[in-house]
Amino acid sequence: MGKKKHPFIKKNDKVIVLNGKEKGKIGTVLKVNAEKDRAIVEKLNIVKRHTKPGGKRAQGGIVEVEAPIHVSNLMLVCSKCAEPARSGKKILEDGSKARVCKKCGEMLDA
Ligand SMILES: [Zn+2]
Predict the structure, then answer these.
(1) pTM, to two decimals
(2) Coil vs helix vs strand at 88
(3) Tag placement on the chain: N or C end, fewer CB within 10 Å?
(4) How far is the CA of 110 from the centre of ligand 1 (A)?
(5) How many other C-beta atoms are found inside a 10 Å radius of the C-beta of residue 27?
(6) CB-based contacts of 79: which residues, under 8 Å, 6+ apart?
(7) How far is the CA of 1 from the centre of ligand 1 (A)?
(8) Quick one: pLDDT band at residue 7, thresholds 50, 70, 90?
């Protein structure tokens, strides 16, 4: 149970990359590692991995996989503003909390 400093990024979120080689690109979060504060973003930060022959695979080779990106380099994107959004919290009628875009009020939870 680590500290969750960045709980604002969740699976299926649309995020923009703020730093690094993928700066400015937008993708969908596939997986979040809250312990390490890292997220896998679809088709971003692709690295080549060598696979060993054996097992179910007949031969080894190179596969391209998404490498985790530190969440401090990611920011939620508002689908309405189509730009990085500061998220605020809103209490819904049923008492649950939702994240909303501070600018336009659009819900950021899918
Ligand atoms: Zn917005």
Answers:
(1) 0.78
(2) strand
(3) N
(4) 14
(5) 22
(6) 14, 106
(7) 32
(8) low
Q: Could you give the CA distance from residue 29 to residue 43 in angstroms, rounded to a whole number?
A: 10
CA distance 71 to 17: 9
Q: How far is the C-alpha of 32 from the C-alpha of 55, rounded, in Å?
A: 28
Q: How far is the CA of 103 from the centre of ligand 1 (A)?
A: 5
Q: What is the mean pLDDT of the chain?
A: 88
pLDDT tens track for 71-103: 999 999 998 998 898 889 999 999 999 999 999
Expressed in angstroms and rounded, the spacing between residue 54 Cα and the centre of ligand 1 is 49
- Structure tokens given for 48: 């080549």
| Residue listed under structure tokens 């899918």 | 110
Q: How far is the CA of 89 from the centre of ligand 1 (A)?
A: 13
**Which residues does 88 contact at the CB level (< 8 Å), separation at least 6?**
99, 100, 101, 102
> Which tokens in the block code for residue 32?
């979040």
Q: How would you classify the pairing of strands 38-41 and 69-70?
A: antiparallel
Which of 2, 19, 12, 13 shows the shortest CA–CA distance to 72? 19
